[in-house]
Design brief:
By secondary structure, this protein is α+β, with helices and mostly antiparallel strands. The chain is 18% helix and 29% strand. Keywords: Hydrolase.
Amino acid sequence: MRKICVIGNSVAASRAAEEAPLAGWGQYLEEFLGPDCDVRNYARDAMTLRDYYTERFAALLTLVGHGDLVLIAFGHVEQRVNQLNRYHGPREYKEYLRLYVEALRAEGAVPVLVTPAARCVFDISGSPVDTHDGYPRLTLEAAAELGCPVIDMTASTTQLLAELGPMRARGLFRWLDPGEHPAHPHGIVDASHYNHAGAREAARLVASGLAGLPGLPPGMVDVQRLVPGQMPPVQTEFTVQQPQLALTAQPEVAVAPAVTSPAPAELVGAGRKLTGTAPEGAEYVFFFEEGDYLGGTRTADDGTWQWRRAVQWPAGQHKVTAIALAGNAVSTAAETEFEVLDRLEAPETIGPRRGAWSGPRPRFSGKAGRGVQKVMVLEQGRLIAETPVRDDGSWRVTHPHDWRPGTYTVEFVAVFSAIHSPPARLELKVHGVPEDSWLHTSMSARLPCGPDCEHYPALPVW
C-alpha cells in the first residue's frame, strides 16, 4: 500500500459525524484513488506552516517511506497580516515550504504542494474574489524553484465558483439560514469551510490535479470516478416569489425588524453580515436597497436572524431596508445605514523622524486614517509588533527588545476588518554599542531571548 498523507489546516481536516454539516476535502480524497492507496489525513484546525512544522512534522517524517505522497496544503491563513501568531511574510512562507519539501525528499517521500481553496466570496459583478493576497502565487513560485509537483487548487476551485455563481456556490459551504440544520439553529455564515457536498467536490478537484501530475505511478487516481457530484440549486433567498411586493404591500405587522449589527453609521468591511431580531411570528426577513431586492433569511425560533449578501458590499454609503414576513403579512419597514471601506491608505510615521538616530529600543509613532483599527510593524517581512489606533488616529509602540546598531528598513501596515494598507517604509538608524565590543563579549555567559520569549517575531516553539 502506498500512503497518501494530507497535511494542512481546517479546510482539509476530516470531520466526525457530529460536526455535520462541516466536512473537509481530505476525508473524501480516498473515494477517487486506486485500491492500493492508503489516505492518511493529518490536516488539523488552526494549523499554519510554522505550527505544523514544530508540533507534528517530526511524527510524519517518521511515518513516511519511499514513494509515499505528502500533500502540503497551507496558505489559507498565513497571509493574515492582522494576526501576529498566524502571519507568515512571503519570504518566511516560501522558506517553510522549502524545509518541508527537502525533509520529505530526504525520507524518500514525494512532496506535492497544494495552493489554498478559494473562499465563497464574490464581487458585485458576481466574479470570485481572491482572498489569499497572492499566497497561491508564492506556492507556485516555490514549487517551480524546488522542482516540486504542485496542484493549483486555487485555480480549480475559483473556476468552479465562477461556473456556479454567487446564487448557488454557497450551497457547497457551511453557510446556513436559521433552522436549516439542527447543529446551527441560529444559522451560520462560513465562506471558508465546506459542507459534505463541497468537500467531496474539492477532493475531486485535488484528485484531478493528482491525475495530471507527470511522473506519478499509473493507477493512483481512478479517473473513472472523477465525476462531478450534484451541484447545489439556487439558494432559498433568491427564490422568494416577487419579493419587491413587500415594499408596496400594506403592513399588517406593526413591529419592524430590528438591526442590532452593524450599529448606525458604523464603518464596516465589504463582507460584513447583518444581524438582528424579527417581530413575533415572523419567519423571514427581506433586505432591499434603493428598491432592489438584495436577499433574505429565515428567522430562528427565538426571532433572531443573521444575513450576509452573496456578493460583497461596494464601497461607500449604504441604506438598507429590512421587512419581516409572517405568513402572508408583512411588517413595517426598518432602515439601517452604514459605510463600507474597501481600501486603506498606508499609515503615517512621525517617529523616529526620518534621518534621525534612534536608541537601541526604538519608539515608533504616527497617524492612521479613518477606520484603521491597528497598525502592524514588520522588519525583514516578519511581524515584530502591533499597536491599536486611538480615537484621534494616533498610534505608538515601543519595541521590547534592544536592537543591534545599524540601519534597518521597518514597515508599517494599517489594518481594518479583513483589509490592510500597502506598507509605509521607514529607514531606521540605530545607535548603540557594537556587537564586537568588550561590553557585549564580556556578557557571553548569559543567553539572549530564545523560543520561549513572548516577544515577536514568532519563533518556532518545540
